[in-house]
Design a protein that fits this description.
globular, 351 residues, Rossmann fold, alpha/beta, 6-stranded mixed beta sheet, 17% strand, single chain
């Protein structure tokens, strides 16, 4: 079985279709390693391999979003992000796999190792890349690139109630893996919290599955993008929309969630990082065999490692939800001889 939400709520599945593009369930594993405070173990949910084409957390959201786009007759997908956005790249890759054209509106960000490779992948795919900065006339830009083009517009991060449903299914999926003995039930789950769709949906899914776990949502973006109040609104809207489609969804589902908001690992802002982030990435590689990065998953891992070494730690079981793609891309970081569809201002990321 790959769709535990559909199995539990067939009426919802009948009324809310999805495109089967994810390889589910994603595997789980447990690693043991030594710290300065003693031996520790951590379970890992490997959403890094959520699709054969491109992994990470966005695939679960896109299953529902792309199906809705297809049902509404769209032929082009448009979305938003920073220039090195994993969401924008995942959307472009999956759009190509499902016969959609793709436009990505991208803004500048601090330099990061993944940006050049992401741009080269967009170049290979032929993604329409549109710079979107403070000096850009947004209304004129949106009219030019969206109007009359049969577009389905996906919000930044894929974080709408529809995208969040993909992670409701993820919560039920994890509960099944616990029930089947694939891993011990965790006391806490740590997940990078960007545009809030993954964390919000997962919290609802865990509550729906009645799995008594506290979700630690580690904020990795500025507070105008992610906030407790915004998370609360998205959570309640997702629960409301699911119940509207299937009355058997509990009325108090949002009230059952257990989410702890973690702000202390932002390291100064989006795509910035500090020694704690850098150390977490190194520990993940050396002790757990995970290839993380410093923008999202490194910060979530930093929170987990800090708590593991806390004097208050009493042997609780922790799970790290790996939301970063580990599938190799068929491109390099090298500067292309011909930019093609890469805008001139983005070519500076190859310097």
């Amino acid at each position: 079985m790959t769709d535990f939400l559909a199995a539990a709520y067939p009426l919802l599945a009948d009324r809310l279709r999805k495109m089967p593009i994810a390889d589910l369930p994603t595997p789980v594993s447990t690693v043991h390693f030594d710290t300065a405070s003693g031996s520790r173990s951590v379970s890992i949910k490997h959403d890094d391999v959520s699709s054969a084409h491109y992994g990470g957390n966005k695939i679960r959201k896109l299953e529902y979003i792309l199906q809705r786009a297809r049902d509404r007759g769209a032929t082009r997908i448009a979305t938003f992000g920073a220039v090195g956005s994993n969401h924008a790249l995942a959307t472009a890759i999956l759009a190509a796999q499902t016969d959609f054209d793709c436009t990505c509106f991208l803004g500048a960000q601090p330099r990061a190792p993944n940006i050049a490779r992401a741009l080269n992948m967009h170049r290979r795919l032929g993604t329409e890349l549109v710079p979107l900065g403070r000096t850009v006339d947004r209304i004129a830009t949106f009219r030019r690139f969206l109007q009359g083009r049969h577009c389905w517009v996906i919000p930044m991060g894929g974080s709408s109630w529809l995208g969040a449903v993909g992670f409701v299914n993820a919560g039920l999926e994890l509960a099944h893996q616990v029930e089947s003995g694939a891993l011990t039930a965790p006391h806490r789950i740590y997940i990078a919290n960007g545009t809030m769709g993954s964390s919000t949906g997962l919290a609802l899914g865990l509550a729906l599955a009645e799995l008594p776990v506290e979700l630690h949502a580690v904020r990795v973006v500025d507070d105008h993008v992610a906030s407790p109040s915004g998370s609360e609104r998205l959570m309640r809207k997702t629960a409301m929309m699911m119940r509207r489609l299937d009355p058997s969804i509990p009325t108090d589902l949002a009230d059952r969630t257990r989410m702890r908001w973690r702000d202390e690992f932002l390291a100064g802002g989006y795509a910035s990082f500090d020694n704690a982030t850098r150390n977490a990435v190194e520990v993940a590689a050396d002790a757990m065999g995970l290839a993380l990065e410093t923008t999202y998953t490194g910060k979530a891992m930093a929170a987990l490692l800090r708590d593991l070494e806390s004097p208050d730690y009493a042997g609780e079981k922790y799970l790290f939800w790996n939301t970063y793609n580990s599938r190799p891309l068929p491109v390099t970081r090298d500067r292309p001889d011909v930019p093609d569809n890469i805008p001139p201002q983005f070519m500076t990321y190859f310097d």
